[in-house]
Inverse folding.
């Protein structure tokens, strides 16, 4: 029923958002028995989420054990007939006589919006921020809510599954603060090293150049980790610009030569590099190429050569439809088959624990954000990692 029907302030059925009507407890218990006899309760207890089943008045008619434990109810019957906000002690759930869903605050609640959509036979997923009363204090929850409609014996219900993402939200906030502050500090140090390098006497030129390049590499690594964290959270911004493939290869070869873990290896530009004009995110592309080069150099021995090049996508079999240019990095080392089967998996590395994000980020950034494709080939002649990109992001 439309909320505008209930428009008398002070009335028990007054609402500012969703319908205030409820089924009485006898009807709620009948619905609960119907669900139990239909075998639905074991199903909701088989998942790790916090799950409740709601009737068409948004009242709880079943709850799984995880929900009961999370909100410290004695048993499932304690929440029967309540609405979700009342069951979790939302601070707004008692502000109106008609309860959860009827306040002005409820119109901004992701859970309330998802439930109403599901009762219109639409599946909805939304984030929900709740302030709940716990004893004498207030606790903040961030939930990911999924509401799915279903019908039983002609009666409309909604299954609401909730995942607590509070820790993830806090982690992302702390990450953003950390990267922001760290980049500010590192950027300041980099600026100072540039001044010192310009003013230093010739006898200290080599040392000041080394300090400057080391701090420059630190800033680059921090930015790379910042981008990776944002990419995994679907928060990474992409800025497209016109690029030339041969120039990109030249800069990559110069920028990523002699990484700390792979000194004395040689990076060589392939002589037949194609000159292809395309549009992409320069910073993200350089992250991808940098990880490709670093991985290849680390796989080699001192004195070995790693080749970097590019070609028009039509000149190779790797690109697939819609790609315009392919960048590749080749080294002479072959990968074992068991290693090949795990390439691009997050945190997989042959170099020990805490490694493996470089190859993972190649595929993540190239395919999700640059709209391209990433892959590799490896045989007795060596290993080649490649990234194919479209003429323009979104093309």
């Amino acid at each position: 029923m439309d909320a505008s029907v209930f428009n008398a302030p002070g009335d028990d059925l007054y609402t500012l958002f969703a319908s205030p009507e409820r089924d009485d407890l006898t009807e709620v218990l009948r619905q609960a028995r119907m669900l139990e006899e239909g075998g639905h309760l074991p199903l909701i207890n088989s998942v790790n989420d916090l799950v409740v089943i709601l009737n068409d008045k948004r009242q709880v008619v079943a709850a799984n054990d995880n929900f009961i434990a999370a909100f410290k109810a004695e048993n499932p019957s304690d929440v029967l007939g309540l609405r979700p906000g009342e069951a979790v002690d939302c601070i707004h759930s008692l502000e109106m006589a008609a309860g959860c869903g009827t306040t002005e605050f409820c119109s901004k609640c992701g859970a309330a919006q998802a439930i109403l959509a599901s009762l219109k036979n639409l599946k909805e997923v939304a984030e929900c921020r709740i302030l709940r009363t716990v004893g004498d204090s207030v606790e903040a929850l961030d939930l990911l809510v999924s509401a799915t409609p279903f019908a039983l014996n002609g009666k409309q219900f909604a299954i609401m599954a909730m995942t607590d993402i509070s820790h993830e939200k806090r982690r992302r906030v702390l990450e953003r603060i950390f990267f922001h502050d760290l980049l500010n500090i590192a950027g300041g140090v980099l600026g100072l090293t540039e001044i010192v390098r310009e003013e230093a006497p010739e006898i200290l030129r080599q040392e000041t150049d080394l300090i400057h390049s080391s701090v420059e590499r630190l800033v680059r690594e921090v930015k790379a980790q910042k981008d990776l964290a944002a990419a995994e959270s679907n928060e990474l911004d992409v800025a497209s610009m016109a690029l030339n493939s041969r120039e990109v290869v030249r800069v990559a070869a110069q920028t990523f030569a002699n990484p700390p873990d792979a000194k004395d290896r040689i990076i060589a530009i392939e002589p037949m590099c194609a000159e292809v004009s395309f549009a992409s995110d320069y910073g993200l592309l350089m992250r991808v190429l940098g990880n490709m080069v670093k991985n290849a150099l680390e796989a080699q021995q001192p004195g070995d050569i790693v080749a970097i090049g590019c070609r028009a996508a039509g000149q190779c079999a790797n690109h697939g439809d819609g790609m315009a240019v392919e960048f590749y990095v080749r080294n002479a080392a072959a990968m074992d088959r068991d290693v090949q089967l795990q390439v691009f998996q997050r945190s997989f590395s042959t170099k020990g624990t805490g490694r493996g994000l470089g190859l993972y980020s190649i595929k993540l950034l190239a395919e999700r954000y640059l709209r391209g494709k990433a892959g590799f080939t490896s045989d007795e002649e060596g290993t080649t990692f490649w990234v194919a990109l479209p003429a323009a992001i979104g093309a």
About this structure: The chain is about 35% helix and 20% strand. Residues 44 and 207 are 65 Å apart (CA to CA). Residues 168-232 form one domain. Confidence is low (pLDDT under 50) at residues 1-6.
